[in-house]
Amino acid sequence: MKIVKEKNKSNYVSTGITFGSALAIAISWSLHKSIIWACIHGLLSWIYVLYYALTR
């Protein structure tokens, strides 16, 4: 039972990381239209999403 809980927790973490990266890339592309900036912001993921939310 303990293994199942740990597996679910890691699944939520990886889903959050993936969603954060996709969201950051989408925001970056809509603002800058640059693949390089989208890659950089995708690596920063949730940091960039929070920055965008706080500065808009």
Q: How are the elements arranged and paired?
A:
Blueprint: H1 2-32, H2 35-44, H3 46-55
**Rg measurement, Å:** 14 Å
Low-confidence segments, ≥5 residues, pLDDT <50? Answer: none
The computed structural class is mainly alpha
Largest sheet: none
Number of E-type strands: 0
Helical percentage: over 70%
Mean pLDDT: 85
Strand and helix order: HHH
Approximate shape? globular
Question: What fraction of the residues are assigned to beta strands by DSSP?
Answer: under 5%
- Roughly how many Å apart are the termini? 44 Å
The total of helices stands at 3
Give structural notes.
Helix content is 91%, strand content 0%. It is mainly α and 56 residues long. It has a domain at 25-56. Helix 1 runs antiparallel to helix 2 and helix 1 (2-32) crosses helix 3. The longest helix has 31 residues, at 2-32.
Give me some keywords for this one.
56 residues, mainly alpha, 3 helices
Short description:
The protein has helices at 2-32, 35-44, 46-55. It is mainly α and 56 residues long.
